[in-house]
Amino acid sequence: MRIRKSSFLSLVYLIVAFLSFNASLLLAGGDSKESKASTILFIGNSFTYGGGSAVQFYRSHLVTDLNGSGKGGVPALFKAFAMQAGLNFEVNHELIG
To answer: I need a surface site. Which of 22, 25, 92, 95 has the fewest CB within 10 A?
Structure first.
């Protein structure tokens, strides 16, 4: 069975976002009832923003792009997962590559 590169990369991006999300829950203590937003900053390259895939511009309006490049990537996936879990995160990123 041969896996297409784009399918494999999409899976990798989802795994990275999932692991980032779980790590942030551990760092935040798992308390989702706080009214104050936790802040997370993603710094990365084309792997982090999903260069060449659909995730590159996924929900870029949900995150603060400190470079102004209009990318969403893994930070936007993280924000979407956090919103679905009822967690309040302010997500920022500096992605270049």
So the answer is: 22
Beta strands in the chain (DSSP E): 38-44, 64-65, 89-95
Predicted TM-score (pTM) of the model is 0.64
Report the 10 Å Cβ neighbour count for 70.
Answer: 10
pLDDT per residue as tens digits for the range 36-77 = 778 999 988 888 888 888 888 889 899 998 988 888 888 999
Q: Hunting for tokens 């551990």 — which residue is that?
A: 26
Q: Classify residue 53 by its DSSP letter.
A: S
Tally of CB atoms within 10 A around 59: 15
Task: Supply angle C-alpha 17, 8, 73, rounded to 5.
Answer: 35
Nearest CA to 92 out of 53, 38, 17, 33 is that of: 38
Rounded to the nearest 5°, which phi and psi values hold at 25?
-65, -40
Cβ(49)–Cβ(73) under 8 Å?
Answer: yes
